[in-house]
Amino acid sequence: MAKDIEKEKELQELKNQVNFLKEELNQSKLNSELESYNEILFNDSPYSILITDKNGDVIYNNNNAQKLYKLTVKEFSTKSCFDLTSLIDLQRFRDDFEKCKTEGNIKAEYQINRGFGRVSEILRQIVPINDNGNFQGAILFDTDISETLRIEEMLNLWNIAIESAANAIVVTNIRGDAVLVNPAFTNLTGYSAEEIVYKNLRILNSGQHGQEFYKNLWDTILAGKVWRGVIINSKKDGSEYIQEQTITPVYNKKGELTYFIAVQQDITDKRKAEEQARIQHEQLIQADKMIALGTLVSGVAHEINNPNNFVMLNVPLLEKIWQSVIPILNDHYEKNGDFFVGNRLKYSKIRSSVPVLLNGIREGSVRIKKIVQELKDFARKDASDMNQELDVNEIVEAAVSLTSNLIGKSTNNFKVHLGKNISRTVGNFQRLEQVLINLLENSCQALKSRDAILELVTSSDENSVYIKVIDGGNGIDPKIIKEITDPFFTTKRDTGGTGLGLSVSSKIVINHGGSLDFDSAVGKGTTATISLPIRKFKKIL
User: Fold this and answer.
1) Is 485 left (phi over 0), alpha (psi -120 to 50) or beta?
2) Does residue 7 belong to any structural domain of this protein?
3) Does 177 lie in the same domain as 237?
4) Is the per-residue pLDDT at 96 higher than 90?
5) Residue 297 belongs to what domain range?
6) pLDDT band per the 50, 70, 90 thresholds, residue 93
């Protein structure tokens, strides 16, 4: 019995030893596996990992650390973490390494030394290793952020470039909603970024382009092509501006069309300068025509005046002859009765008509001479003289004389009201005559019927003299009345209008220190008023 108990004890002790050995074996296996796992975690970590002793000497490095620093395991064994830090950040890192001993984890950016004399920017987390409160070393987790910083720097440069660009830049989504605008865009359009972002750019539509224009634009950019062209847009205050625009499609990494970048250049002033140059060119052409007209008129006047002088000289002679022969003809008539003169004309009918005919010939001849003289005056080369003493009534009479044929064909209701005691002014007779002729021609073209009125009125007050051209024509749309004196603006382009007449006329009046104003109602007519300041004539010696 005692022997059995002793065997059981020995067996139980043996079992205990076996179990102890099993536990030791399992723990050893577990530790081996843990070490294997730790090796994997460290070596395959996306971070560059360095483990240092308490002095900062590197005692462990993983694969990414070797790639980042361009060092081998052997080369690391001779390095401290301070050797790996660039001089520019070395002192700051030393301070942070000391701080982690008491403050715990520290995260900061540093510049490090890499192989071949290169440097990189890293984000480093310093984790202290402590044993019973005693600092034993540190684990350094490093992430290379050089590329990130480079991208951020480039983005910052792009932002600065866009913000400071002289050209307006707007980025839209594929629906045309603004998602980004630069200051030049807000300055150009008058809309602040808050007012325009997430708004569709159709808000800038001026109505100057038809549907076909915008269809072509959208078809181009939605097809992934760059669109270039000129657009007239409308600012926040309603004024229009002209811009050259380039719209470039933008794709994401998947190849999907996501945005459009529009770069816009304001060319309003450029276009105005071009128009002004064209005006000056047209004026030079007109001036050349006037010179040619002056030469032509002088020649024609000579050719007309010569035969007209014969007429003027011979009519009085014919009148004297008629007065001499009429008693003889009357005596013959009384003795022999009526008789034919010139085959079929009876003497009884023509004896009272001949004086009237001769008088008409004389008046017509005088009118021919007057018209020729006025043409010569209108086309003469001293049109630059701005120091002529002027009587506006004389200007009106001269303009009416030259346009009488057109007026007669246009209306039966033409009247001239010349003010009495009109103050004189100073300027250029021919140029103001040109303005008045242009206004009369425009009024005649606007008349709807021959019963419509056309009136000329002159007056003066203590400061100014006035010439008004009043017509009962079609009138002018109030939407465009402010534009009718703009260069090349015309509602008669289809019939050959150039848009220069009123522009040149307005400039002539302004050069005289006056103004040309229009008051109009659609369907009722227009009143054009020339206002000229009263100036005293100064004789130039």
Assistant:
1) alpha
2) no
3) yes
4) yes
5) 270-381
6) very high
